[in-house]
Design brief:
Radius of gyration: 24 Å
Mean pLDDT: 86
Largest sheet: none
Helix content: over 70%
Structural class: mainly alpha
Number of helices: 3
Oligomer: single chain
Number of strands: 0
Distance between the termini: 70 Å
Strand content: under 5%
């Protein structure tokens, strides 16, 4: 039974490494292809700024959602 557990562990370990490798290679290839588009090359600063804005949106939305109930509670206390 120990041999079977070791074999399963090896398969799962190999599966994780192959998954990670395929993820990195596919995203590197996609980035290379995307970076060769003429529009991207001309407007790289705008693309980078857009990526930053999009990545900050979830934090901003969470902050606004957290802030809204607190403001409603303060309004009820004042009334």
């Amino acid at each position: 039974m120990d041999l079977l557990a070791q074999a399963l562990d090896l398969v799962l370990h190999l599966d994780r490494h192959l998954g990670a490798l395929s993820w990195v290679l596919s995203l590197s290839f996609a980035g290379y292809q995307f970076g060769n588009l003429p529009w991207i090359q001309r407007n790289l600063s705008a693309v980078i700024l857009g990526i930053i804005v999009v990545s900050l949106l979830p934090a901003a939305i969470a902050w606004l959602r957290e802030r809204r109930p607190a403001a409603a509670r303060r309004h009820q206390i004042l009334m």
